[in-house]
Amino acid sequence: MTEFLQQLVNGITWGSVYALIALGYTMVYGILRLINFAHGDVYMLGAFFGFYIARLTGAANDPNPLRAAGVLLLSMLGCGIVGFVIERFAYKPVRKSSRLAALITAIGVSLLLENGGMLLFGADPKFFPQIIPSANVPLGMGVSISNQQIIILAVSVALMLGLRFVVLKTRVGKAMRAVSYSHTAAALMGISVDRIITFTFVLGSMLAAAAGVLVALQNPKIEPYMGIMPGLKAFVAAVLGGIGNIPGAVLGGLVMGIAEVMVVGYLSPTWRDAIAFVLLIVILLVRPQGLLGQPPAEKV
Amino acid sequence: MKQLLWCAGLLAVLLAVDTALPRIVNPYIAQVIVLCGINIILAVSLNLVNGFTGQFSIGHAGFMAIGAYSSAMFSLKVGAPWASELVAVGMAPFVAHGVALLAALILGGALAAIAGFLVGLPSLRLRGDYLAIVTLGFGEIIRVLILNVDAVGGARGLPGIPGWASIFWVGAGVAAVILLARHLALSTHGRALFAIRDDEVAAESLGVDTTRYKVLAFVIGAFFAGIAGGLFAHFLSYLNPNSFTFLKSIEVVAMVVLGGMGSISGSVLAAIVLTLLPEVLRPVREYRMVIYSLMLIVLMITRPGGLMGSREISLGWLRRRVKPARESV
Prior knowledge:
The complex is a heterodimer of chains A (300) and B (329). Chain A has helices spanning 2-32, 39-57, 65-91, 99-121, 147-169, 171-181, 183-188, 193-218, 228-241, 246-267, 272-286, and strands at residues 126-127, 136-140, 143-146, 221-222. Chain A is mainly α and 300 residues long. Chain A has one domain (2-134, 145-286): ABC transporter involved in vitamin B12 uptake, BtuC (Orthogonal Bundle), CATH 1.10.3470. Chain A has a two-stranded antiparallel sheet with strand order 1-4. In chain A, helix 3 (65-91) packs across helix 8 (193-218) and helix 5 runs antiparallel to helix 8 (193-218). Chain A is globular. The mean pLDDT of chain A is 86. With 329 residues, chain B is mainly alpha-helical. Chain B has a domain at 35-246. Chain B has 13 helices and no strands. Chain B has helices at residues 2-24, 27-52, 60-88, 93-123, 128-148, 167-186, 188-198, 200-205, 210-236, 246-259, 264-280, 288-302, 315-328. The termini of chain B are far apart. The mean pLDDT of chain B is 84. Chain A: Pfam families: BPD_transp_2.
């Protein structure tokens, strides 16, 4: 029982990271119907930006919570800019072409970020500095949680609530929802569709950057290819919850994180990468719109 | 009769190339040519699914892996002893190995086709992106499965596969897949596939059994992916699950889209371009993947319909291109 609870705690922490990345996928898909394959690589960049910022600002040598928060925010800012550049120079020119062309462009951007990362950061893994000294907090019944896990959970929840606020309560959020419903109708209502799309990319990239820094806190080994698998799985999480659906992405991320940790704990670590896709195929066959998604009305 | 002559001529040419080429070019160039051929088979077969039928599969590496591993296991356990027996009773080694290779390839292709059927049947009621995601998931599951089965080497890979696949066999595979795709495109069945791509509802209302045809396209595509996998295995003599990652599937999709959806010659061209590109860029080693990805992005921005669009290169097409130029003089 203790072991199960411990796995559950780890699973929820890991799942909240998936949820953060999945949110970016789901928002972009909701608005552009584009699977943004480069999203996992933005997450990787987030971790690397955090690494360099921590070194430059001295947060690596003198860990304190304020500096750690600064590292997180600056890295999010950096990835926000990267998201802006990607959208402006790669995705915008193909927006009017077929969705396949857009998809291949996304794949091209993904390869560019990975291999550009190899070139800039080098192929050897880097070790993320401990910007928060680690400590264990007992939760009772033999279950414990590290303070890093608490931070991961707290920051993720805060960011998700913030996103919820932006999407549901602000003008720009209202515009985002309108654009995801129909580009044409939104444009007729005086919404600048291009700006909303850019805003969505920036927002999604910032969340991915946060996920990158948070993961690096717990698993300090970072390398340019680290984004591929988490990116794919976060995407699967978004589909699991119902793609285009923001609460769905969070739920999907949590389910995925817990399932993965359980498989590693009780079955075998080598099956870890399969569970995500097995879950995916099962859900798509039983409930193709995802856990929280609405079945799409089919126009004939 | 004419067709038979064509085929015989083609095989003779391939045989000549097979014997002559290793003497003219170095093994590296020969290897690049073979890899071009294998990628052509993959791209054209995926084009049947993505380009002809408009379904979106990004799990082609999974079918390739099934074909590669099953044919390799067959050759290791059955084919190799069998071939040496045939040689012992006096058959020419080239023929004996060819027979064994052919059996292995057909087995690999058939197993991949069965997998294609099993994946296709339930998942083809999904559309667009969802189908893409299922095929992606399937490809990854196959890879993890192979990683976990010790009998096929797991993560260590599978060494010692007989290296029977020469340029002759790869060329024959390329010819087979192109001929099949071409005949399919001109047949009733091909028209049905195009109709599904252009408007599924309209096709169905005109009496096209859409599910049957979608599964058919999937099965044929998977079969040739399996053949390509088998050739790959018997050419490199070594298999590793890492050759069949999601990236391999993506590479093939890029070939199809870059060539132009539904254009066979486009797929062939793009397969050659995308195979050669990383090789040509070898001198600028560190930058090559960066340049490759940049070129992919730029090509998609400047030519979103692919290099060839849905056109085909043929004699008639070339003639038409030349003629207006002459008239304008």
